Amino acid sequence: MAIMAVAAVQSLPPAARRTIVFPHSEWCYAGVRLATESNNNNSPSSVSISLRNGRTSTSSRHTVGCAAARRSSTTTTKTASCALLGDAAAAVDEGRGGIAGMSVVVTRERGKNGKLIKALETLGIQCVEVPLIEHRTGPDLPKLVHILREVEFGWIVVTSPEAAAVFLNAWKDAGFPKARIAVVGTGTGQVFDNIQEGRDQLQVAFTPSKANAKVLAAELPKHDERDNQVLYPASLKASNDLETGLTDRGFSVLRLNSYSTESVQGLDDNLVATAALAPVATFASPTAVKAWVELVAGTRRWDGAAACIGSTSAVAAQKAGLKKIFYPESPGLDGWVDSIVDALKSQI
């Protein structure tokens, strides 16, 4: 997006003076910098910078400091200023389909929305964080530590970032036993990237061609009898697709419900009112869909679009009665962001 801003600013006459609206401060500064580099007049110019996040800086003679003003080591660093053009902002937003400034509700557990929020804000999309789920200890968690100490499995199958975090804590408590991991997708695999202690005992050895449980069950390698034993530390709410698919292929699967994904018990009324105004809500689990319908959509007559991380959440959204549902063919952050963009465009 910064490249688009750069191209737009450079193509316009520096003499023009109008307000430019950038959805993110980074793009604003990129535009200021390039306009400064292309402006041969070093005198301050009138500039009004309006950011989509609600902050506005306006001055009839507003000087903007730019790194580009440092011409060389022998030239005095100057504080430059430049006129920014509304046409450039329009060109930037046009490439995104006019979605900059629109709002999206993100619904994962508090503290787990950061990557998605960052990706959306880079596109100029405003985020309303409404955590609709919380993770709780599952009934089989104590067994997980014991099993890891006593049994070596051919595969340990992990199907979500939360399942990965729960497993790693149990693995540490069990004394870092040798473990070969199959993860459902790159997002789950990234949880294992920062392991330090016991790293040589753990191998992330397989990721399926598509990030869902059915494909993982169909593609998990089975080279010999040693691969047959599979440990599946799962959410209490997870479907049986994975163990059913693996069992049908001759694997022996031990499922341990090590955690549970639950709906939040209540939301602040003001937060609900704000969320209900957003044209798009995002979902990464059927539990989040259920909570949204019960706490927001069902009470505020919300008629927006649902952008789901994958087909499992999308099916839940359809069953819950939501009408406008978008999801990527292959789950993951990039595909999810694309689906959110499509959902926003459908609401324009």
From TrEMBL:
Q: Which family does it belong to?
A: Belongs to the uroporphyrinogen-III synthase family.
Question: Part of which pathway?
Answer: Porphyrin-containing compound metabolism; protoporphyrin-IX biosynthesis; coproporphyrinogen-III from 5-aminolevulinate: step 3/4
Q: Name the reaction it catalyses.
A: hydroxymethylbilane = uroporphyrinogen III + H2O
Top-rank taxon:
Eukaryota
**So what EC number does this one have?**
4.2.1.75
Q: What is this protein called?
A: Uroporphyrinogen-III synthase
Cross-referenced InterPro entries, in alphabetical order? 4pyrrol_syn_uPrphyn_synt_sf, 4pyrrol_synth_uPrphyn_synth, UROS/Hem4
Q: What does the record give as the function of this protein?
A: Catalyzes cyclization of the linear tetrapyrrole, hydroxymethylbilane, to the macrocyclic uroporphyrinogen III.
**Keyword Transmembrane helix found:** no
Q: Note one Pfam family from the annotation.
A: HEM4
Q: Which SUPFAM superfamilies match?
A: HemD-like (SSF69618)
Q: Where is the Tetrapyrrole biosynthesis uroporphyrinogen III synthase domain?
A: 116-337
> What keywords tag this UniProt record?
Lyase, Porphyrin biosynthesis
